[in-house]
Amino acid sequence: MISAEYFVLYGADALAIPTSRGQGIEVSGDPGGKKELTWTTKVMGETVYSSVFDHMGKCTEAKTDNFSQTLEQIFRYLLLKKGPGFLESRLPLHVVSEIEFPLDWGLGSSSTLISNLAAWADVDPYDFQRSVFKGSGYDIACAQSTTPIIYRLENQRPIWKEVTFDPTFSEHLFFIHLNKKQSSREAISRIKKLENEVTPKLLMTISDMTAKMCHCKSEKEFALLMTRHEEIVSAFLNIKTVKERLFRDYPGGVKSLGAWGGDFIMVTGTEDEMGYFREKGFNTILSFDEMILAPR
């Protein structure tokens, strides 16, 4: 999400862009096999999770990890929507999820999983997402799009349209990982405590900035918009911007993306100027073309 983090939950327009790395899922049967569902998750080709579930979506192994609990929650939703025999009638099943990026990058492993499973089970991906992970659902729209989008919630209904976001200064836009992952659920919980302070004027201001960022013609103007956006969110949350905390003397624009505190930030600058961040230990730096799904 390039703009409107937090405020997208209350109706502000957000600019969001599908990334070049995603997640695929393969579901296959096993005639004559044991009546169970085996689940395997691979990250960049390496198996990081494997477990077995019964016809009611309960993990049959003694696992208490968060992902097993999340999968049980996912299966409960599917059984609620599709009927108690939904899984049993399809067993045995093998599910293999292939994630193309490190999990701590925060590029939407949960949303792409929901999008893939929703397509397989023929359920509404947005309702699915809200029930399991909360959030605005913008990442579901990104998972289903091949171009940048403007996304908003209207009466809690997702509305989005594909747009052109191909800045002439894209070679001066970089995405830098902060070496830690931020919890989206914690971020949502934070703004929920402040929701009474969200005003129509504030939402209009953010939406206007989204439109300006989408159509911006110069790197300087874009950096100013990034800075102003950061100032607004910082004042609302009463949290210092990432530039204030970590990169105070960097001359270019610096903006948090999504939940503040982790994952990626976006900066303006040249390839040579990225040395500033590497010297501080932030070595995962992707260019605009490396991060964004092509063709743009």
User: In percent, how much strand structure appears in the residues?
Assistant: 15-25%
CATH third-tier fold name of the largest domain = Alpha-Beta Plaits
What does the largest sheet look like? 4 strands, mixed
Domain count: 2
N-C termini distance = 16 Å
- The CATH class of the largest domain is identified as Alpha Beta
Give the topology string: H per helix, E per strand. Answer: EEEEHEHHHEEEHHHHEEHEH
Assigned CATH superfamily of the largest domain: GHMP kinase, C-terminal domain
How do the helices and strands line up, and which of them pair or pack?
Layout: E1 14-16, E2 23-29, E3 37-43, E4 46-53, H1 66-82, E5 93-99, H2 109-121, H3 125-132, H4 138-143, E6 149-154, E7 157-162, E8 173-177, H5 184-192, H6 200-214, H7 219-237, H8 242-246, E9 254-256, E10 264-268, H9 275-279, E11 285-287, H10 288-291
Parallel strand pairs: 3-5
Antiparallel strand pairs: 1-6, 2-5, 3-4, 6-7, 8-10, 8-11, 9-10
